[in-house]
Each structure stands twice: as C-alpha cells, then as structure tokens.
C-alpha cells in the first residue's frame, strides 16, 4: 500500500525487537470477543489513485458546478474569484501538514500569518482585537452569545428577524442545551424591524446581521445605543465579508462583538464547508473571547516572535472552567482568507466591493423590469430579495433545468413561513457577467 | 545500533566556525529568511489582483458608505508569494519529517485527497443549490456515512460537527436530549477519567453537567471499581477515551459499558484515538452509545496549522433519533438532505449545529483516503501504527522510563523519571529535540503522568525514520544523564528560526495585532511592552 512504508521484513524485525511473536500479541489488551478476524465485510478493498479518481470523479460529475452556469446563489456563502496563488500557497506542505503551533520556535510561519490575520480582521470590522478564527460564521455567532452571557451575567439573547435562519437555528440549539433564553424577532423581509423595543434589563445581547439575510443595510448605531443603555451587548453578524470594503464597519456603529463568515475570501464554496469564522471584539472583553489567540513577544535573543497566548481561557488548561470547548479552529481557511486579502490590499478589496455592488445594482434594475417581479430592497450590498408572483422554489427548479442557478428560495431556509414562499434571494458577485444577468431575466420571463 | 549520520561517501570537509556563532548582516541564515509583517512593507497604491473598472451606478448602500480607509496593506503578487513562502519555511510539518505529537495523529496527508476535494463538482458547488443539481455531492456524504457506520458497527452517524470538540458537543447534546425525552433530565453528573482530553470536561460543563473525575489505576487505566461506585442515579454519562490518552486499550471496557447501561446512563467514547483500532475492532461491539471521529486524525485530512477539522459522531440506536439536522436520505427520487422538520413524530432532532451540511471538503478527502486503503488497508493502518509505537517504546526504554508496563497501542508514554536529578525538564528535553530536527512529542499530557512525553509515530513512518528518531532520543537521554549538559538543554533550541519565546510577556502585556506605531523587528515589542 502506497502510504505504508513498512515491509514485511521490517515488520518481522520490529516484532523481534519488541519481543513478541505476532501483531496480535500487541493487541492482547483488546478482549478476544471483539477482535475481528479479517477485513470488515461490506466495504471495498484498496485501490490505486486512478481507480479512486474514477470513482469520485463520477460522483463529482453529477453536480452542476457554480462556474458552469449563470450563478446567483448566496444566503451565507458566496461565489467569488480566488486568485491562483492562494491555492498554490496554502498547499505548501509546511502549511498544509503542520498542526496547531504548540512549539512556537518551529511554527513561526503559522503564528505570524495568524497574527496578520487577526490584524486584518480588526481593520475590516473596526474592532480592537480578533481571534485566530472559528469553525465558521454560524458557530461563531453562537459563541458570541455565550460570551455576551458571560460578560453581562445575563442569559437572554434577542435575535433579529433578519438573521440568517441557519445562524438562528444554531444559536437556538445552543440555547436549548446550554441553558439560555432566546427572544426571536419576527421574520423581517422588509428590513423595518425595531429591535430596540425588545431590549430590557435581562437581555445579554442583541444579534443582528448586516446586511441582513434579505440584503437590507441598516445603520446600527441607534440599536447599539439602546443596547448599551440597557447594559446589553450588540453582536453584529456579517455573512458577506466583502461588504466591509464598502460599508461602515460594525465597530464604527458601536458593535461589541463582530462575527463574520470569511468564506468569501480565499475559501470557495465547498458545498458548505469548511469555512472560516472571524471573531472580533473590544479590548476590554479580550479575556472572555473563545478560541485561539496569537500574540507578539520576543525570544531569548530579543528577536520578535509570536506565540499562542492567553490560553488560560482554554480547555486544555482550564478543562471544565474553560470559556469554550473549542480546540481546533479553521487555520488553513484562515490562511486562504488572509492571503487573498493580502493580494487584494486596500485598493483591490475596495474595488472588489464596488464591483460587487455595482453589478448587483444593475441586476436589480434589470430584474425589476421582469413583469411580476418586485425587488423588496431599497438598500443592499450584493444580495437582494425579490418577490415573485408565485412560489419561488419551483421557479428555481425550473430555471435549474435550464442550467441557471437563480438564487435561494426563502422557503428553503424558512419552510414554515408561508408569507415568504414567493421570495427569492438573489446574490450578484463580481463573477456575474451582463450575459448572466440577461439569462436570469430572460429565464424568469419564460417560467413566470 | 547507532547509525552513522555521515552520508558524505567518505569525503572530508575542512573544519569551520561553529554554526551558532555566525552573525549575518541581514539576520538571515542561508535558506532561513527573516520576514517582516505584511504591514511593514506595504504601499497603499499596490494590489496583487487586477479587477475591471466597476460600472457606474447610483449606489444603494442606504447612506452607509464607509468613510475613511480600512488600512489594509497593498502588495504585488510576487511580494505576496515570497512572503508566504518565507513564512512557510519557518514551520515544521509532516512533510518535513516525523511529527510524533501524541494524540494528534500526524500521519502523511496524501495529495490525491487534495486533488479530489478540488474537483469542481465538490469544491465549486453551493450548499443551497437545488438538490437536483448536487446529487453526487449528497451521495458522497451518504457514502462516507456508510463507511463510518460500517467500520464502527454503529447504526447511525451525525455528519455536521465541524471538529472533534464540536462532535463531543453533538454527542453530549444527543445524550441530554435522550435523557430529557425519557424523563431522566435530573441526571446531571458526567464521569470523566483524569486522563481525559481537556475538551471532555469543557464540553460536559458547557452543557450544564457537573464533572466528576474518576481516578486512574497504577496501570494507566480507568479504575473500574471507582467508576462503578460513582455510577449513581444522578449520572448522565461517562466520557471515556479508548484507546485512552496513555496509549492503552481499556481492557475492561465491556464491563464498563454494561455497568453504565445498567445504571441508566450513556457511554460517550472519545474517538480521538480510533486510528489505533480502525478495521480491527468495531467500537459498536464495545457497547458504546456514541463516538466522535476526528477525520483529520484517523482518516488523514490535513491538520492545516490547526484546522479545519471534521468530527462526525456515530450513534447507537437509542441515540440515533436525536441526531442534529440535516441528515442524508436516499429514496426513490434519489439523494436528499433532510434539512427541516417535516412530518409529525419526526421532531426529536436536537437541532442544527452549524450552517449548511458539514465539512464537505474534509468528507471528500476522508473518503478518498478510505477508498485508497480499503477495508484491508485500514486494518493494516491500525496494525502498523501500533507496531511502530511499540517498536519506539521497545527501543527507547533502554534510556527513557515508560510510564506503564506492557504493550501500548498507537502511542507510547514516558514519564520524566529518567531526568530525575539532572536539572533538565521534559520541556528542556523537547526543545533539544528541535535542534536535532524533530518536532517534539506531546508534553505534560496526560496529566496523570509526571512530566509526560507522549509519542505517536503513526503508521506512515518507515523503520529507517523510526531508527533515526530513536537513535536521536537515546543520544539526548544519555547526554541529559551525563550530568554536564543541563545548561545546553536549558538554552535549546539554538538552531530553530526562533529561540525560546517569552510567553509570560505575551500574556502579561498582550499584543494581539499590529499597529502603525509598532517599530521594525526587534525593538517594537520591547518598546510596547514597556508602555
């Protein structure tokens, strides 16, 4: 087997050195009743590379790739162009096949890029400190609520009706089993909710998404003031991190914790994972943060270097008193994110954001001219909601048959909200061409 | 059997100055290049990406256009490529050599798996595309789920957990849900052996359970008598790692399982060390209720500098109804993701743990690995992993002190008894390994062994590599015991990209981001720390 270097001669020699006769002697602590005599039935035998490629290639070929169709699907995961050098660099074995930098002397590469990543995240979000990543945006949002509960010593979270339903579901699952209360605002497809009215002295935080899952952009400063007046924290979720190239950052609007899904930069769609969560907060709340943190220090020669720090928050030190049970994060996706952002730089990133917005505005204007289609948004970044004259899910299916991936029917996310059945979320990134917009508009005219 | 490290085929070089004493103008040392932060050689006018001019439109940003610059550095593509290439060269990795980090299973990461994960049909599909357009992707999740349940002999698997610790959360939530459903919600104690990973007590505590530690016996296993005595009507579950963190198989696991079940509790098995028994033992035959599987350990998806991982959880029949959504279904219409509760009586699911459907990219890699090995090869994986660990233990016990007698499983554990009275600690020993070109083993874990050194060579190391490693370790141990080397050990490492780093300073005066006021390498942090 190509991954196993031991030869039979090696194995015999090694058993002799150990002083046992057979490999079974090394498994002698395993009760004989559960030792299997041979390979497990019902599974295939070993294969060469060609055969594995053939098998998996067949499965892959049964999927319609985003790049092979006019593509408008978003709702928390976005198709962006990733420069070739990103994937090349993250596949360097020194990055790909190392682990959490427990030995800083020989993992400065990982530690330095995470330090740079943390800095970039603070810049984008307008916050003071950021951690070295979370699993993804949704689990990061749930950790943000737990952190707000610790900070405020309260246990009730208010969730916006514009929060991605999957994020809401993840927070609700955490609430149910980790014991805090959730007050969910009604679904807010129009972007008009007033969350300040829900903030009282029991509330630890308000979780609001900007732009909302329906695409609306809101000034969160008044909500931040209402939260702070009541002693609660404002948690801002951003599922499209490219929007921060053009929009006022949450930190400037008074956010206390900002959580982003970072998938848009460097990571790719990957059918939903792995992605990368960004997590930023105020310096005064630093010691209540979950996840790994990288800090700057010096070595014995006085040279600058980086280490994992403040680990007294973490499970491997604090065990049952840890701030979170998280161990692994999303290191390699954080690397992809930071490389892509470094390639873009200030100029490239802001232009990418402009390009997304301008393309989306053109798409919205074109779709608004399709008979029966109404664009719900006054404001948006690169995703907006349209109301169709009939249920959106079958329309999306019909367009998929024409090889147009038209967007996400809101019913996919909210199956029990009948008022949303006709709503369609349409995401328009820099990868969308004028022809793609025309194909979507023409397709809609045909199937509606 | 110390082998010569002279591979010069007999040619001799003239003696030169000692390496450590050489000073260079740049601070670079040959191929080892110092590298600034991206922020320190950036220029706002540069970019490494060319994008078209955005079309002119009237913006619809609701008056929330950003004012002022973000502050991001600008670099051209060649600078970016050099920066990250230089950074990469400061990392030790499996690709560089033996990485014996116990409990982390640093085995070879096949590149075929990377290629498969990047097929457009897997890497370039959106989680919310119509399911009719991603039948092969859903099938892949179903196929991997099939391998996992068959290998473990368990009836169900939850695929969405993002990492091992997330899988623990999933499994323990399922247990909490099952207890609540059967009116046993008053069971609030979770038994956790002292040798457990830190994530076990952290997970249990996060879910509101109180954690009761169970002592280990002198032979490194859970004290079954103490466990049975603790199994009262307040106990929800036990969380037991098997093989355990001492690298030993819990011989009495069936007895433990029977006792746990008889007491009305659940058995959570931490599957971090499943690689030791994969293909040779089905955890389902041991009587467990659930177990997370770290795909990045046993099934070799890359560790990536600390993630992403993936932690599917196999479930017993009595926990299966409480799996999180979504799950994969195959019916007449084809493959389908059951994302939301629908039919009545179908509402026991514990909820959603994560947006979308799980770590698809890791699923593809893991399945490629499983197909490559097959059922026969995976069995060989466990055998070679165990053989390699026992071989290392057999060779090292000439100078080091094994923590326990008898064979180990996939990792071998030593205490620091052999360093007694040398003035050298486990940490010093580990740092000396760095100068010899090795990543140290796991240190000071498990907590039940003093100055623990946990060595996991994995099955993907050759005998030659193991012999070189053992020769090095034996040499270091003899040097440590010589009584004259304490200072040298304390000073190590001398040859790594950095010497020992001041972790106290880092924690006392945290600098977690670059700021424009920071100076260049060397003086910046000192100045800041003195503020």
TrEMBL record, chain A:
Its EC number is 1.4.4.2. It holds the Pfam family GDC-P. It is an enzyme of class 1 (oxidoreductase). It comes from the Bacteria. Gene3D superfamilies: Aspartate Aminotransferase, domain 1 (3.90.1150.10), Type I PLP-dependent aspartate aminotransferase-like (Major domain) (3.40.640.10). One of its GO terms (molecular function) is glycine dehydrogenase (decarboxylating) activity. Residues 1-441 form the Glycine cleavage system P-protein N-terminal domain. The glycine cleavage system catalyzes the degradation of glycine. The P protein binds the alpha-amino group of glycine through its pyridoxal phosphate cofactor; CO(2) is released and the remaining methylamine moiety is then transferred to the lipoamide cofactor of the H protein. Belongs to the GcvP family. N-terminal subunit subfamily. This is Probable glycine dehydrogenase (decarboxylating) subunit 1. The gene is gcvPA.
Automatic annotation (TrEMBL), chain B:
Residues 383-483 form the Glycine dehydrogenase C-terminal domain. The keyword Isomerase does not apply. GO terms for molecular function: glycine binding; glycine dehydrogenase (decarboxylating) activity; pyridoxal phosphate binding. One of its GO terms (cellular component) is cytosol. Keywords: Oxidoreductase, Pyridoxal phosphate. It catalyses: N(6)-[(R)-lipoyl]-L-lysyl-[glycine-cleavage complex H protein] + glycine + H(+) = N(6)-[(R)-S(8)-aminomethyldihydrolipoyl]-L-lysyl-[glycine-cleavage complex H protein] + CO2. SUPFAM superfamilies: PLP-dependent transferases. The keyword Oxidoreductase applies. InterPro entries: Aminotrans_V_dom, GDC-P_C, GDC_P, PyrdxlP-dep_Trfase, PyrdxlP-dep_Trfase_major, PyrdxlP-dep_Trfase_small. Its EC number is 1.4.4.2. Residues 172-304 form the Aminotransferase class V domain. Residues 512-531 are annotated as: Disordered. One of its GO terms (biological process) is glycine decarboxylation via glycine cleavage system. The glycine cleavage system catalyzes the degradation of glycine. The P protein binds the alpha-amino group of glycine through its pyridoxal phosphate cofactor; CO(2) is released and the remaining methylamine moiety is then transferred to the lipoamide cofactor of the H protein. This is glycine dehydrogenase (aminomethyl-transferring).
């Amino acid at each position: 087997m190509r991954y196993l270097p031991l030869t039979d001669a090696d194995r015999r020699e090694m058993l002799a050195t150990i002083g046992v006769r057979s490999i079974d002697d090394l498994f002698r602590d395993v009760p004989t009743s559960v030792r299997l005599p041979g390979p497990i039935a019902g599974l295939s035998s070993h294969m060469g590379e060609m055969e594995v490629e053939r098998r998996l290639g067949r499965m892959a070929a049964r999927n319609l790739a985003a790049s092979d169709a006019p593509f408008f699907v978003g709702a928390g995961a976005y198709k962006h162009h990733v420069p070739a050098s990103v994937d090349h660099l993250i596949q360097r074995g020194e990055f790909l096949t190392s682990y959490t930098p427990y030995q800083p002397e020989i993992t400065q590469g990982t530690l330095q890029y995470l330090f740079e990543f943390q800095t970039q995240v603070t810049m984008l979000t307008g916050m003071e400190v950021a951690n070295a990543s979370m699993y993804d945006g949704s689990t990061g949002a749930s950790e943000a609520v737990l952190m707000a509960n610790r900070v405020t010593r309260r246990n009730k979270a208010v969730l916006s009706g514009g929060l991605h339903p999957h994020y809401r579901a993840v927070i609700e699952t955490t609430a149910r089993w980790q014991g805090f209360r959730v007050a969910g605002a009604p679904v807010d497809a129009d972007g008009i909710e007033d969350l300040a009215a829900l903030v009282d002295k029991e509330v630890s935080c308000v979780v609001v998404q900007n732009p909302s899952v329906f695409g609306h952009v809101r000034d969160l400063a008044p909500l931040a003031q209402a939260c702070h007046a009541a002693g609660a924290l404002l948690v801002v979720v951003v599922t499209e991190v490219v929007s921060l190239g053009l929009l006022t950052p949450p930190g400037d609007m008074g956010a206390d914790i900002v959580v982003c899904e970072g998938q848009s930069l460097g990571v790719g769609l990957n059918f939903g994972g792995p992605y990368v969560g960004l997590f930023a907060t105020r310096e005064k709340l630093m010691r209540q943060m979950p996840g790994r943190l990288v800090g700057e220090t010096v070595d014995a020669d006085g040279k600058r270097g980086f280490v994992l720090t403040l680990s007294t928050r973490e499970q491997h030190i604090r065990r049952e008193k840890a701030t979170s049970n998280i161990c692994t994060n999303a290191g390699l996706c954080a690397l992809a994110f930071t490389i892509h952002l470094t390639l873009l730089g200030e100029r490239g990133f802001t232009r990418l954001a402009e390009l997304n917005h301008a393309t989306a505005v053109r798409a919205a204007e074109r779709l608004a001219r399709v008979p029966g289609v109404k664009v719900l948004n006054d404001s948006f970044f690169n995703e907006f909601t349209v109301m169709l004259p009939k249920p959106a899910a079958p329309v999306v299916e019909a367009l998929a048959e024409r090889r147009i991936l038209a967007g996400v029917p809101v019913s996919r996310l909210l199956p029990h909200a009948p008022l949303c059945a006709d709503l369609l979320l349409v995401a328009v990134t820099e990868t969308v061409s004028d022809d793609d917009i025309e194909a979507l508009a023409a397709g809609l005219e045909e199937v509606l | 059997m110390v082998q010569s490290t002279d591979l010069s085929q007999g040619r001799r070089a003239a003696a030169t100055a000692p390496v450590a004493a050489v000073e260079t103008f740049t601070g670079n040392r040959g191929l080892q290049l110092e590298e600034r932060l991206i922020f320190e050689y950036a220029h706002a006018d540069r970019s490494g990406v060319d994008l078209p001019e955005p079309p002119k439109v009237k913006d619809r940003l609701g008056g929330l256009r950003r004012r002022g610059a973000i502050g991001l550095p600008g670099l051209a593509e060649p600078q970016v490529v050099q920066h990250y290439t230089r950074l990469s060269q400061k990392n030790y990795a499996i690709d560089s050599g033996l990485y014996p980090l116990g409990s982390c299973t640093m085995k070879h990461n096949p590149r075929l798996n990377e290629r498969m994960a990047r097929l457009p049909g897997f890497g370039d599909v959106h989680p919310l595309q119509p399911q009719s357009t991603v039948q092969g992707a859903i099938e892949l999740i179903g196929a991997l789920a099939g391998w996992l349940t068959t290998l473990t002999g368990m009836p169900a698997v939850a695929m969405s957990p993002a990492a091992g610790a997330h899988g623990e959360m999933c499994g323990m939530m399922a247990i909490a849900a099952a207890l609540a459903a059967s009116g046993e919600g008053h069971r609030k104690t979770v038994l956790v052996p002292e040798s457990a990973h830190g994530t076990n007590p952290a997970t249990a505590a996060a879910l509101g359970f109180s954690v009761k530690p169970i002592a280990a016996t002198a032979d490194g296993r859970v004290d079954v008598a103490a466990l049975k005595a603790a199994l009262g009507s307040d106990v929800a579950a036990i969380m037991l790692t098997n093989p355990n963190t001492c690298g030993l198989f819990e011989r009495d696991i069936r007895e433990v399982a029977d006792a746990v079940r008889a007491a009305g509790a659940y058995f959570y098995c931490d599957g971090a060390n499943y690689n030791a028994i994969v293909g040779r033992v089905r955890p389902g035959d041991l009587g467990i209720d659930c177990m997370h599987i770290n795909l990045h350990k046993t099934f070799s998806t890359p560790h990536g500098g600390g993630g992403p991982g993936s932690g599917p959880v196999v479930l017993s029949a009595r926990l299966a109804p409480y799996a999180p959504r979504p799950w994969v279904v195959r019916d007449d219409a084809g493959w389908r993701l059951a994302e939301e509760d629908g039919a009545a009586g179908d509402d026991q699911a514990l909820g959603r743990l994560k947006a979308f459907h799980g770590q698809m990219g890791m699923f593809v890699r893991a399945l490629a690995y499983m197909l490559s090995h097959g059922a026969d090869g995976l069995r060989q994986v466990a055998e070679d992993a165990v053989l390699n660990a026992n071989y290392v233990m057999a060779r090292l016990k000439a100078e080091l002190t094994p923590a326990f007698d008898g064979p180990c499983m996939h990792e071998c554990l030593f205490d620091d008894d052999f360093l007694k009275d040398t003035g050298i600690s486990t940490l010093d020993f580990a740092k000396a390994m760095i100068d010899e070109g090795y990543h140290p083993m796991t240190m000071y874990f498990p907590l039940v062994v003093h100055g623990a050194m946990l060595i996991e060579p994995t099955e993907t190391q050759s005998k030659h590599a193991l012999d070189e490693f053992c020769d090095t370790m034996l040499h270091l141990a003899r040097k440590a015991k010589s009584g004259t080397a304490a200072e040298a050990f304390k000073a190590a490492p001398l040859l790594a990209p950095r010497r020992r780093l001041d972790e106290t300073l880092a924690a006392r005066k945290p600098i977690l981001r670059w700021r424009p006021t920071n100076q260049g390498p060397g003086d910046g942090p000192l100045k800041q720390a003195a503020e």
